Amino acid sequence: MNMQNPRRATEQQVSFDRRELAVILSLYGRMVAAGEWRDYGISCLRHSAVFSVFRRTAENPLYRIEKHPHLRNRQGMYAVIAMDGQILKRGYDLAIVVKVLERRLLRVIGE
Length: 111
Known about the structure:
It comes from Roseinatronobacter alkalisoli. This is DUF2794 domain-containing protein. InterPro entries: DUF2794. The chain is α+β, with helices and mostly antiparallel strands. It has one domain (6-110). Helices cover 34% and strands 24% of the residues. The chain contains 4 helices and 5 strands; from the N terminus they run ααβββββαα. The chain has helices spanning 6-11, 18-33, 94-97, 99-110; strands at 39-44, 49-54, 63-67, 78-82, 87-91. The chain has a 5-stranded antiparallel sheet. Strand 4 and strand 5 form a beta hairpin. The protein is globular, with a radius of gyration of 15 Å.
């Protein structure tokens, strides 16, 4: 019987650290207060971590905030992807990358 060490399995997953989650959840809280977003999901996969944002629970995600560490030295490891798969912003600093969604919040409040 081949038993894998559970600790080793978790080491192979990519996840958001506390600083990254603080940036994402701050934006999420503001969008919930504006009535734009209502639910989220976090996926920690082998090669990436994904924070998905939903307007309603049963829908496809409006946006995905993804972390791909293997792209750190190329295009930047963070990306914001729209529901249709279009990459809205990609970069090295998460706070700068999620600003593309903050601009949408300003439009919502200004209307």
